[in-house]
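Late entry, evening session. Most of the bench is empty. Finally got around to the prediction I had been postponing all week. Sequence below, unchanged from the version circulated by S.P.
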Amino acid sequence: MKYREVQETLRTIGIVMSKKDGRIRVNHFGGTPETARFAGCPKEALRLGLSMAQPEQLPPEWCAERRKILDKTSGNGSAVAIS
């Protein structure tokens, strides 16, 4: 896959990708510098981005926020599915 194809693929699952000084930076939308990872090529960036999108790889505070949202909506008959 080409750089742009990988970038668009990852964007659909909440992962952003950028390139600077020959390094590819992969991070969550709204991620911090601490959650960023780096890859050397688009293939590696795709693999890295896909693994970062797995629930166990999400920052703990994001998972806590998702739980708060689910708790607020679960009692009123209009539960929101958030994965």
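Two things to note before I forget:
The first helix runs from residue 3 to 11.
The radius of gyration is 15 Å.
Will write this up properly tomorrow.
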